[in-house]
Fold (apollo) hypothetical protein.
Amino acid sequence: MEGVLPGQHAPRAGKPVVQFENEDEVLGELRLDPSISQHQISSNLGIPRSTVQRVINRNKYHAYHVQRVQALLPGDYEPILRFCREMLRYHREDPQFLNKVLRTDELTFRRTGVFNIHNLHFYSIVNPLIIRNDRFQHRLVLTCELV
């Protein structure tokens, strides 16, 4: 081979070719479990994650996030009303009260630990509009502190 040292291969141009059997295997994994991660597919099939990602993109799959919904329980109304009445009382006593409240992002603690909804996804070609009911509604929510 001209221009190549002995024992070396000629340089390849462009992206590596994704084998069709890899493509069928990756798509098969997605059909079996649409919530599987690219890392898990890569591990299951023994192929690079970049190959998995390329197959997913070429076949127009998208990682849709699950929408979390919650329902109010009958016992929720009284604490909500109590909180609102307290806030109104504080405001009547000091009209600047709400300006002294530091508003922060909501942090949720559950019996099962901290849950990150951003890690929950579902691969599909069209948006499946998946809704996840929050099964652990009894939790401590920290939303603000007084300054």
In short: The chain has a mean pLDDT of 77. The beta strands are 62-65, 67-69, 101-109, 121-124, 131-133, 140-146. Helices lie at 20-32, 38-45, 49-58, 77-93. The longest helix spans residues 77-93.
